[in-house]
Design goal:
The complex is a heterodimer of chains A (115) and B (111). Chain A is an all-beta fold and 115 residues long. Chain A is 0% helix and 53% strand. Chain A is built from no helices and 11 strands. In chain A, strands 2, 4, 5, 6, 9, 10 and 11 form a 7-stranded mixed sheet that branches. A 4-stranded antiparallel sheet of chain A has the order 1-3-8-7, with no helix packed on it. In chain A, a hairpin with a 5-residue loop joins strand 5 and strand 6. The radius of gyration of chain A is 13 Å and the shape is globular. Chain B is mainly β. Chain B contains no helices and 11 strands. In chain B, strands 2, 4, 5, 9, 10 and 11 form a 6-stranded mixed sheet that branches. A 5-stranded antiparallel sheet of chain B has the order 1-3-8-7-6, with no helix packed on it. In chain B, a hairpin with a 3-residue loop joins strand 9 and strand 10. The relative contact order of chain B is 0.34. Classes of the chains: A mainly beta (115), B mainly beta (111). Chains A and B meet through strand 5, strand 9 and strand 10 of A and strand 4, strand 5 and strand 10 of B.
Chain lengths: 115, 111
């Protein structure tokens, strides 16, 4: 089945630095990928929709300059958290659609801790 | 906007019993609804999709029902096992071309 690889799985960074998270579709092409954020015991909240070759679509309240998304190829989307602050600490998950099953395949997530 | 409620934050059942999880939604009529499993520190894993014209869908020990009149989906795990312990999320495709997820139900199957 479809596999989405997300890297890194955990990252700790200092306040003010930037962190890049990669999301790759391993055995299929994904023209669209989605980035979510999840707080403890809360549901997934869509941050943005990443479109290959064009600008990402951000959800209301998500800062575009804070969360930079690049979808340069059909198999790779990246999320860069710029000038990270402790309140950016969260679990970030990407996903892409599996055309065969209509389900969405999720990456394994990235636990970001900003200290 | 769409609202999804999974009315049990946590559910404990004995091994071998049937677990039933509930997902209710308002303010929308989705064309389909999905269920996912999420283990701690991991991304959700797709389990089942059920369309609005389907009353019931089965996959091995899993069964999902979809009542568009009640705006409710039920997710059943029969002959539950400790390995079924996880958080289960329902999701519907709503306006704005995105998925809306419930907050999940944490299921614990007690040996």
């Amino acid at each position: 089945g479809a596999v989405v690889s997300q890297h890194p799985s955990r990252v700790i960074c200092k306040s003010g630095t930037s962190v890049k998270i990669e999301c790759r579709s391993l055995d299929f092409q994904a023209t669209t990928m989605f980035w979510y954020r999840q707080f403890p015991k809360k549901s997934l909240m869509l941050m943005a929709t990443s479109n290959e070759g064009s600008k990402a679509t951000y959800e209301q309240g998500v800062e575009k300059d804070k969360f930079l998304i690049n979808h340069a190829s059909l198999t790779l989307s990246t999320l860069t958290v710029t000038s990270a602050h402790p309140e950016d600490s969260s679990f970030y998950i990407c996903s892409a659609r599996d055309q065969e099953s209509y389900g969405y395949t999720f990456g394994s997530g990235t636990r970001l801790t900003v200290v | 906007s769409q609202k999804i409620e999974q009315n049990s934050e946590a559910l404990n059942i004995q091994e071998g019993k049937t677990a039933t999880l509930t997902c209710n939604y308002t303010n929308y009529s989705p064309a389909y609804l999905q269920w996912y499993r999420q283990d701690p520190g991991r991304g959700p894993v797709f389990l089942l999709l059920i369309r609005e014209n389907e009353k019931e869908k089965r996959k091995e020990r899993l069964k999902v029902t979809f009542d568009t009149t009640l705006k409710q989906s039920l997710f059943h795990i029969t002959a539950s096992q400790p390995a079924d312990s996880a958080t289960y999320l329902c999701a519907l495709w709503g306006t704005g071309n995105q998925f809306y997820f419930g907050t999940g139900t944490s299921l614990t199957v007690i040996p």
